[in-house]
Amino acid sequence: MIVLGLTGSIGMGKSTAAAMFAALGCPVHSADEAVHRLYSGLAAPLIEARFPGTLAGGTVDRAALGTRVLGDAAALRDLEAIVHPLVRAEEARFLREAHEAGARLAVLDIPLLFETGGETRVDRTLVVTAPPEVQRARVLARPGMTPERFEAILAKQMPDAEKRRRADLVVDTGAGMAATQAEIRRIAAMLLLEDENKKGTGV
């Protein structure tokens, strides 16, 4: 089974690309969705213990938590020390189940793939990108987003150019949905062929 790490900066089309892989029958694990589940599950009491007052109705209040960790590197490290191992455990379970189900291509959707060293856990990396003006327009169209918040998010992420330099594969989503879908199909077919060739050579 080929494990593909999918990543990209905010507004680059990562969620859309993940959905396209899923539509092709590839199992997809979203780190963001895992965090949402954990904030209402295993991570909730652990986060409340470290950051009292951030739990509301059994679920972590993301806004309240954000105010506690924003600009506080030590607090952010403590939060990551709680959440990251739990996400990794979910990811490992997902890959095990995908392999047992006979999947030939599994996708790990990880926003901070390179920032957290996640490329060491996958066979190939794919970065989605788009022109800066397209990225900005997409993000600022989101409810509650401001130019200042957008710039703050960008400042915390690895620059797009560096992600593209590190990636095995790059897809430009700025060319439109049809072109993006065609490129995702091409990449999926290429990786499936690679997996088939590995089996043929016994690697």
From TrEMBL:
Pathway(s): Cofactor biosynthesis; coenzyme A biosynthesis; CoA from (R)-pantothenate: step 5/5
Binding-site residues, ATP: G11, M12, G13, K14, S15, T16
GO terms for MF: ATP binding; dephospho-CoA kinase activity
A single BP term in Gene Ontology: coenzyme A biosynthetic process
PROSITE patterns: DPCK (PS51219)
Location of this chain's protein in the cell: Cytoplasm
UniProt keywords, alphabetically: ATP-binding, Coenzyme A biosynthesis, Cytoplasm, Kinase, Nucleotide-binding, Transferase
Main location: cytoplasm
One GO term describing the cellular component: cytoplasm
EC nos: 2.7.1.24
Keyword Nucleotide-binding: yes
Family: Belongs to the CoaE family.
PANTHER family assigned to the protein according to its UniProt record, in alphabetical order: BIFUNCTIONAL COENZYME A SYNTHASE-RELATED, DEPHOSPHO-COA KINASE-RELATED
Free-text function comment from the UniProt entry: Catalyzes the phosphorylation of the 3'-hydroxyl group of dephosphocoenzyme A to form coenzyme A.
UniProt name for this protein: Dephospho-CoA kinase
The organism of origin for this protein: Aureimonas pseudogalii
